[in-house]
Amino acid sequence: GDLAASFLDIGEAQKALGDPTAARESFRAANAISTRLAARDPGNADWQEGLASSLIKTGDAEWALGDLAAALAAYRDGHAIRARLAQQDPGNAHWQFELAESHSNIGDTRRAQADTTGALESYLAARAVLERLVAMKSPDTDWLKELAVVFNKVGDVRWAGGDFAGALGAYRGVLGMRQRLADLDPQSAPRQQALAGILGDIGDAQRALGDGRGAAESYLAALAIDERLIAVGTANAALRAAILELRAKLREVRP
Known about the structure:
By secondary structure, this protein is mainly alpha-helical. The chain has eleven helices and no strands.
């Protein structure tokens, strides 16, 4: 276990240094060690989890190198282990969260391969797991943030497929979560920007559905948030670009 963990740490360092090829080799070395350990004692959950983690990290490296097929294979192998662990202990929130993450990884890869149906299937599976976690008492904000991200991905896939009503429904689901996260930490500029971002997405979907008035209201709400951030000194290129884009969209939807 310790040697495999060392290879994972080395791989993470190589990844941070921008060397995904070397990182992949380190993660593969960790895979080989973890595979032997997991085969020696299939009932050892820690070793099984370690193998799943090294497989997921290998998938990340394959993705960075542009080999989506290899990334998907690694993600699926890691996911299969995480699914078994989550099934063995449904009350283990950590394993459930990791299961949702692996569903999302698979969805991202399928989406990159233009498999929108498969991507949506994976995102919906991730959403179901995260919704169960968030429904628990005092949910971790990381769960809520990840649920918002997955809802957003569901909306994006539906948007790409021309299902604007489905996209709007998903984006509205994100809005409640982004509002809740922003309320938990009103001083967090990233959370405020994320709230404005989803309001902009809602406006786009309303506009695509022919609801110009609704789109204008959403764009105005997003613009108000972004302008408040500028007023308190939160100025960055992305924020300024978002303001310019929102103003342009408002000019287009207003009579």
